[in-house]
Amino acid sequence: MPDDTLIHDPRGGLPRLIAIMARLRDPETGCPWDIEQDFASIAPYTIEEAYEVADAIEHADWQELRGELGDLLLQVVFHAQIAQDRGLFDIEDVANAISDKMVARHPHVFGDESRDKSAEQQTRDWEEVKAAERVSQARTGTLDGVALGLPALLRAVKLQKRAARVGFDWPDSSHVLDKIREEVEELHEAAGHLSHDRIEDEFGDLLFVMANLARHMKICPESALRRANAKFTRRFERIEALLEDTGKTPGDSDLAEMDALWNRAKAEERQ
């Protein structure tokens, strides 16, 4: 029988988690579900856990954040164990790789460069280091290495940032607003007589330019949309509560009544 001392040690920390995952993936004594998983099957869970971390931060729920960070850490350990099982790398290689990267990208902390820099200058330096890394990895295209798996709005911003570094960018947000008006008109025209695919293309163009506006205004579009989602949820729940006070549900109401209650919910928030 294997020694389970570390696995059952409540203060075993990261080594305990690594040992647990190794046991779960053991082909003889592990969990059938865990054994069957691969990088692709686990990737959606990894993305989901990252969003749940963001959600805990959004709600300032620090106990929840501790748990969600653990769930995300489990994903890292899971991927590393799959890699180790295949003879690719292990969790120590993962930790060493990110440590090397952080040291290399912070010469003003770990090297000879001066720390007397603005945050903006440090960001430029960071991008220069990353660009050099891409060249060393034979990624010479401006847009090479922008992950396909990113949420679409975030990927749009990253693509635009890359293009902007080589001069492909509007000088200020006023030009972006002009482009938004143009794209809205094109979408309006497409909606009248073009195919669904063409309408979707035009809608995508509009979203892409909106992401560009967010970048120019130094707004994270994902964060802005999460806030809008939260606002909508909060106000619609208020509509439901006001309707419940009269013995009604949204299904018993109509748009005019709910719109009036929406405006009331907005006014209440501004008081």
TrEMBL record:
Catalytic reaction annotation: ATP + H2O = AMP + diphosphate + H(+)
GO terms, biological process: dATP catabolic process; dGTP catabolic process; dTTP catabolic process; dUTP catabolic process; response to stress; TTP catabolic process; UTP catabolic process
CDD domains: NTP-PPase_MazG_Cterm, NTP-PPase_MazG_Nterm
A Pfam entry, by short name: MazG
The protein's Enzyme Commission number: 3.6.1.8
Residues of the NTP pyrophosphohydrolase MazG-like domain: 37-110, 176-235
GO molecular function annotations of the record: ATP diphosphatase activity
InterPro entries: MazG-like_dom (IPR004518), NTP-PPase_MazG-like_C (IPR048011), NTP-PPase_MazG-like_N (IPR048015), NTP_PyrPHydrolase_MazG (IPR011551)
Family: Belongs to the nucleoside triphosphate pyrophosphohydrolase family.
Protein name: Nucleoside triphosphate pyrophosphohydrolase
